[in-house]
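Blinded run. Sample ID left blank on purpose so nobody reads anything into the name before looking at the predicted structure. Input follows.
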Amino acid sequence: MPASRPWPTSIRALRHRNFRLYFCGYAISTLGTWIQQVALAWLVYRLSGSAALLGVTSCVALLPQLLIGPLAGAWIDRHDKRRLLLISQSLLAAQAAGLAVLTHNGLIGPGLIVAMSALLGVLNALDTPLRQSLLSRFVDQREDLPNALALNASLFTCSRFVGPPLAGLLLGVTSESLCFAINACSYLALVIGLLCVRLAPAPRAAGSMRHVFREGLNYALETPNVRRMMLSVLLVNLTASSYAALLPVFARDIFAGDARTLGWLWGAAGLGSLLSTLFLATLTNPARLPKAILASAVACAVALLLFAGSRNLPLSLAAMALLGFGVSICNVGTNIVLQSQAPERLRGRVVSLYTSTRFGFDAIGGLLAGVLAAHFGGPWAMGLAGALLLTYCVWLSQRPAMPVEEQAA
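Blinded prediction complete.
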């Protein structure tokens, strides 16, 4: 039960014991994840010098979210979520350890990197909606769920701010294999936290996989707000999130830098994301989010265009911070609205549809950006993404607004 003493509004979800255990474990785990992501991107570009391969690697790590994610939600709602999450975290640790061993022994190459990234994508397609759908079980009062979601995102973005520069420092003095090994060990923190969590048995979805999946899909398609927000998530991640695949190109070719430069670019985007989640953590009324999401999508488009045209590192770091802020508001804000409205019995399926759209089109965007950068250059690819997103924002701003209260009906 929640503690009797008051907690600040911005961290009120931490008064719940189960959420505190999860929060501490995930804080360590997600830091390791970001260290591995930066190290892997640097390893790919160091071995191949190919922007296209960066896009392919990013794509195969995220595309399973789009292909497997919707079905994973139906499967999740039919099983014990905590047990499944323990299994997925253990498998993710094994993947990172395998990557560390292969890299340390000089056995890694482009083919194996793509294969290991694809394996990571499959595991994340199950792990991501599992973690998101369990958050509602970790808080005892539903009104604290938006804050729990914002704090969960703040961990991801804080690690995004700290992890990439830390990875850059590690890469400067050690090797990619040590970064992968650190990530493998970091998963143990969340496993320990989950083992200490006390949860009452939850009702599971009944019926065949086909029935359970169709029930969740019908809810998403027949709810106007869900349709519109999913479309926005699709466009934002197809365009704005594609920067992740191109940062090594900008770090080395545009700014003539090294792994430290890449770390600073990642860190700037992470700082913007962190600031956005701090803003969301103080929000008590989800009805304010739709307008903030649209404004943030415009900010993403402006940041993409600014970064594409900049050759000044401080200005580019500022653009990355703005981009990180905008992408996070769009994605986390959408997640808060969807989970605040979704019935508990449908939560796993709603979350999986959201995560599959978010990460799946992030993958497609990264692949397209890598291919375009290989032919026309990174600035041209990022500028095109900004122009496309800005066009969508103009179109969306001319559509009639739908209040959250009406959407939830």
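Unblinding after everyone has recorded impressions. The radius of gyration is 20 Å.
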